Amino acid sequence: MGKRVMVVDDSRVLEIMVNDLLEDSDFEVVAYCRNGEEAIATYSEVKPDLVTMDIIMPGLDGLETARAIIEEDPKARIVMVSSLAYDDTINEARELGAKAFVFKPFDRDQLLSALEQAVTDEV
Q1: Which residues contact 100 (CB under 8 A, 6 or more apart)?
Q2: Prior bond to 74 cis, omega within 30?
Q3: Which pLDDT does position 41 carry in this prediction?
Q4: d(CA 96, CA 111)
Q5: DSSP assignment string, 3-25
Q6: Omega of the bond prior to 48 within 30 degrees of 0, cis?
Q7: Distance in angstroms (rounded) separating the CA atoms of residues 6 and 8
Q8: DSSP strand pairing (50-54 vs 27-33)
Q9: I need a labelling partner for 108 at 20 to 30 A (CA). Which of 18, 29, 73, 80 fits?
Q10: Is the pLDDT reported for residue 123 higher than 70?
Q11: What percent of the chain has pLDDT over 70?
Q12: 68 near 80, Cβ under 8 Å?
């Protein structure tokens, strides 16, 4: 059985893209959330192996959402995803417990590499 992935991003295009990129891989999208509030509520229901988390979203941003999920589940494996990332943002994401970072636009190899890094990173 593959690893279960919850995608958190306000872009419907990204949802379709991630589904396509993960086809025939060891990862399966089991939930899609459009904002941080929905992600926090869905995480405990779905209990995914991994979460891809956009940083810039309406309402709670990805960093705040990741922080809330990690407080709820310290073993959460979160891969931050963004097109607008600066060193301080990446550092903040790592400090709060993100396991990997991938920059938009990304391809299949970049996404799979980040997901594999998150899976193999020690908790």
Answers
A1: 79, 80, 114, 115, 117, 118, 121
A2: no
A3: 97
A4: 21
A5: EEEEEE-S-HHHHHHHHHHHTTS
A6: no
A7: 7
A8: unpaired
A9: 73
A10: no
A11: 97
A12: no
